[in-house]
Write a structure and sequence with these properties.
Helix content: 25-40%
Shape: rod-shaped
Low-confidence stretches: none
Mean pLDDT: 84
Strand content: 5-15%
Number of strands: 4
Structural class: alpha+beta
Radius of gyration: 34 Å
Distance between the termini: 94 Å
Order of helices and strands: HEEEE
């Protein structure tokens, strides 16, 4: 067996301690490309999340409008049982203490509520309740182009006046009612 005549010492500059290990660069951090990829992914996820959030808020506002119409119809039926007539009203004519907005205050409300006689009938026999989204006297920032104005009459007919107009409550209007 042959032994080398000259062998470097283990701690000498010719034989460094970390020989055989991969060298790390002296500056640690992220490259611009890595940061751009991460920002693009975060932006994409935020975009999907914001769209979902907007749809959720829209559905909850519709629930607010529907619930306000149901509550108002119960009050109208109670009034009818005592007076043998329904009560017309809007924000200008606040009759019988009926609430003309869908939430606790007009500013927080998404819908303005109104009551009038059904088309082609008298107020004594039929009342049509309407929930108008984002009118001048409630939250003007709320708009619902899909459903528009929600209506409910004392005969149980539910309609809407948005892009889904003309579809009565049932399979075609599940989005609104």
């Amino acid at each position: 067996m042959h032994t080398p005549v000259f062998a470097p010492l283990p701690n000498s500059p010719c034989f460094p301690r970390d020989a055989g290990r991969p060298r790390r660069p002296s500056n640690t951090g992220f490259t611009l490309l890595e940061l751009m990829v991460v920002l693009a992914l975060v932006g994409l996820l935020a975009g999907f999340g914001f769209k979902s959030y907007q749809q959720y808020v829209l559905r909850m506002k519709r629930v607010e409008g529907r619930n306000a119409l149901y509550l108002l119809m119960q009050q109208q039926e109670r009034y009818f049982s005592q007076n043998n007539s329904y009560l017309p009203f809007d924000e200008a004519l606040q009759a019988g203490g009926l609430k003309w907005h869908s939430a606790d205050t007009p500013a927080a409300s998404a819908y303005q509520l109104q009551a009038a006689a059904c088309d082609g009938d008298d107020i004594r026999h039929c009342v049509k309740l309407s929930a108008v989204p984002g009118s001048a006297v409630v939250n003007t920032g709320f708009h619902d182009p899909e459903c528009g104005t929600l209506t409910l009459n004392s005969r149980g007919l539910k309609t809407q006046a948005g892009r889904s107009e003309g579809k009565t409550a049932g399979p075609g209007s599940a989005v609104c009612w």
